[in-house]
């Protein structure tokens, strides 16, 4: 199915056909509303819709306008007053808009939640859900605070203690044992400690680390420069888009402040800030616009109220948040 148009299956409803090459974007968006409602169990259709939505800012704008009009018409309800003529496809879509918006949320979930969730169920020892922070005590006595939407697996063996950060972020207070080092694997990155308190966040580029007490040795993927680094209390490590490991300074009492439901951001991209908000939001946040990965921001954001955090971004940094449904937020520049 092409990304730039409505579904190629022309049988939309009765004898109605929608041909993408001959209709404008508002009709395409309306066609998607109808098609999603007609085939609520079609996972492939939902993923194709997301492809269409993300393939062009014009598609996103058309979808936003169509859902806005649909919601307004639904809220108005039936009336005997004379109305402006509305195309049958849009009128039909309006009657179903509430269900369709729910299907949209499900569609967004498919790519980001279902498949990874099944894998984690098979491999993780401990997990957290959206907005949930948990304290876990490991077999060796070490304490782990799991951030929302995170997962770990732990093996306590004779030769060492090995923990895999499968997803998300965690704060560790490691029980000291000089004979058995504590190793953490976060993707292609590895962190080794004896006894210390620090945080690790798994990222697409490697791992972000902040040390509150003691010291850690970090081994990074070979394509990162440098590929290993030692950190002591009050130091942090982040990996930038250019593949560089950057040493920074952090107040020890600000390591893993997400445990208090806040994020303190210092010169990070808007996309990175949204990545920090996502695990706290009971829905799906879609980011559109390459500029959001480039623009740098600083500030304090309330993770426990993610919609307020997104609103703070819009006020301070000229970005737009579209409420595509009660469970879907689209952030665009």
Write the layout of secondary structure elements.
Layout: H1 25-38, H2 43-54, H3 57-76, H4 88-95, H5 97-123, E1 126-127, E2 134-137, E3 143-146, E4 151-157, E5 160-167, E6 169-173, E7 182-186, E8 189-193, E9 197-202, E10 207-213, E11 215-219, E12 228-232, E13 235-239, E14 245-249, E15 262-269, H6 270-277, E16 284-288, E17 296-302, H7 306-317, E18 320-325, E19 328-332
Parallel strand pairs: 5-7, 16-19
Antiparallel strand pairs: 1-4, 2-3, 3-6, 4-5, 6-9, 7-8, 8-11, 9-10, 10-13, 11-12, 13-14, 15-17, 18-19
Protein name: Iron transport regulator
Domain FecR N-terminal: 27-68
Keywords: Plasmid
> What CATH first level of the largest domain would be assigned?
Mainly Beta
Write down how many β-strands occur, each being a DSSP E stretch of 2 or more residues: 19
CATH fold topology of the largest domain: Jelly Rolls
Number of helical segments? 7
Question: In which order are the strands of the major sheet placed?
Answer: 1-4-5-7-8-11-12
Beta-strand content estimate: 25-35%
Rg (CA only): 24 Å
Order of helices and strands: HHHHHEEEEEEEEEEEEEEEHEEHEE
> What is the molecular shape?
elongated
Please identify the structural class as seen in this structure.
alpha+beta
Uncertain residue ranges:
1-22, 73-114
Keywords: Plasmid
GO molecular function: sigma factor antagonist activity
Protein name: Iron transport regulator
């Amino acid at each position: 199915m092409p990304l730039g148009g409505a579904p190629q299956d022309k049988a939309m409803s009765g004898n109605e056909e929608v041909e993408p090459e001959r209709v404008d974007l508002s009709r395409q968006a309306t066609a998607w509303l109808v098609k999603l409602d007609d085939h609520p169990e079609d996972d492939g259709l939902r993923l194709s819709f997301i492809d269409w939505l993300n393939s062009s800012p014009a598609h996103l704008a058309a979808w936003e306008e169509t859902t806005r009009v649909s919601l307004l018409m639904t809220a108005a309800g039936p009336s005997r007053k004379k109305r402006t003529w509305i195309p049958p496809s849009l009128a039909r879509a309006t009657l179903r808009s509430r269900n369709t918006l729910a299907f949209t949320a499900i569609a967004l979930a498919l790519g980001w939640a279902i498949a990874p969730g099944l894998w984690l169920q098979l491999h993780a020892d401990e997990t957290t859900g959206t907005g949930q922070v948990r304290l876990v005590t490991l077999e060796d006595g070490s304490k782990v605070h799991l951030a929302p939407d995170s997962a770990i697996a732990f093996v306590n063996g004779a030769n060492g203690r090995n923990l895999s950060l499968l997803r998300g972020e965690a704060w560790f207070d490691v029980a000291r044992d000089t004979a058995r080092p504590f190793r953490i694997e976060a993707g292609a990155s590895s962190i080794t400690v004896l006894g210390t308190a620090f945080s690790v966040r798994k990222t697409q580029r490697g791992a972000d680390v902040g040390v509150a007490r003691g010291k850690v040795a970090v081994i990074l993927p070979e394509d990162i420069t440098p590929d290993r680094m030692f950190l002591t209390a009050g130091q942090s490590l982040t990996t930038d888009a250019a593949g560089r490991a950057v040493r920074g300074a952090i107040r020890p009492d600000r390591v893993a402040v997400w445990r208090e439901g806040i994020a303190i951001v210092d010169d990070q991209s808007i996309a990175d800030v949204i990545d920090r908000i996502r695990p706290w939001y009971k829905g799906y946040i879609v980011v559109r616009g390459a500029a959001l990965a480039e623009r740098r921001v600083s500030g304090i954001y309330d993770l426990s109220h993610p919609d307020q955090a997104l609103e703070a971004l819009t006020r301070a940094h000229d970005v737009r948040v579209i409420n595509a449904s009660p469970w879907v937020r689209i952030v665009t520049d």
